[in-house]
Amino acid sequence: MLIILAFIILFHLAAAILLFVATIHNAWWVVSPAGRDVIYTDLWYSCNATCYPVENSHTAIAAYLQAVQATMILATILCCVSFFVFILQLFRIKQGERFIFTALIQLLASLCVMIAASIYTAQKHSFHVSSLQEGSYGSSYILAWISFPMTLVSGLMYLVLRKRK
């Protein structure tokens, strides 16, 4: 049982780390123009040699970008809260009970990641200026999609998990 518990904790921590990296790292969209520096764009900034805010990110045209920012931050916060609730429930709930509250929080985190990545996928060309149109998805975008099934599986594991001796 201790090995299963250690696996669940490590799996949850890995999902949380992926969420942190996907939210913070500046590689949601990558452009490699011929003869120039590679341009990395995240949810807030575009960077090559220097970083500058994403153009029009504060306007109503890019309101979906603000939704992606908010849901990724919310997913990261919910994943961390879920971990702390799991640790508290590990010592507080009675033997034989399930970690339902932890599972619900983790499943909400999974839903937030899915919403953020889906919105970004659907609206990928809306906020990029013409010089950034010919790019591709970056590593942070891929990490966001990888963290979705990880948080989903983690939430489902908490639903199945019962506290044993």
Describe this structure as you would to a colleague.
This protein is of the alpha+beta class and 165 residues long. The chain has a single domain, classed as Butyryl-CoA Dehydrogenase, subunit A, domain 3. It is 59% helix and 8% strand. It has 4 helices and 5 strands; from the N terminus they run αββββααβα. It has a 5-stranded antiparallel β-sheet. Helix 1 packs antiparallel against helix 4, helix 2 packs antiparallel against helix 3 and helix 3 runs antiparallel to helix 4. It is elongated. The relative contact order is 0.21. The mean pLDDT is 84.
The number of E-state strands comes to 5
Number of helices: 4
What's the order of the H and E elements?
A: HEEEEHHEH
Major sheet, described briefly?
5 strands, antiparallel
Query: What is the name of the CATH architecture?
Result: Up-down Bundle
Computed over alpha carbons, the radius of gyration is 19 Å
What is the oligomer described by this structure?
single chain
In total, the number of domains comes to 1
- What structural category do the secondary elements indicate? alpha+beta
- Tell me the fraction of residues in β-strands, as a range: 5-15%
CATH class: Mainly Alpha
Q: Enumerate the spans where pLDDT stays under 50 for 5 or more consecutive residues.
A: none
CATH topology: Butyryl-CoA Dehydrogenase, subunit A, domain 3
- The amount of helix comes to 55-70%
Order of strands in the sheet with the most strands? Answer: 4-3-2-1-5
Average of the residue pLDDT scores: 84
Morphology: elongated
Q: How many angstroms does the end-to-end distance come to?
A: 8 Å
Protein name: Epithelial membrane protein 2
Family: Belongs to the PMP-22/EMP/MP20 family.
Transmembrane segments: 63-87, 99-122, 142-161
InterPro entries: EMP-2, PMP-22/EMP/MP20-like, PMP22/EMP/MP20/Claudin, PMP22_EMP_MP20
